[in-house]
Amino acid sequence: MTDFADLPDGWVVWSDEGDRAVLVYCPDVFDAEEFPAPCLPTLYLTRGERSRRPGTNPATPGADWYVDLYLEPDVSLPGSHGVPTRTEAVDRAVELARRFADGEIDYRGLYQVPRERYFDRLDELTGREP
Known about the structure:
Blueprint: E1 11-17, E2 20-25, E3 42-47, E4 65-72, E5 75-76, H1 86-101, H2 116-126
């Protein structure tokens, strides 16, 4: 499996199994006690589009790799596109993780119904001005 050694601080490899890897941001902060569990910022790296239902239509060996950033199950960064290799997908995941950790991704703009307390904590962690 490809190495995630260049992940920025705060990002953790939650799982890495063959055709799927899951990276999470600050699981010690977004721990379901202070914030709802679905608020854990998560990067999914999958062979085949993540919209496939688990257990149905498994990814074919030649399928592209996709990287998707979710702030909640229904709140994600638009613009996911496939890349042909896992190495390219890992590079994309590390780049998205860096951009997120550096406050370059406008997570507030992704929400229709804001979670101000959650945003304030993300702003604090990413050094972003509200």
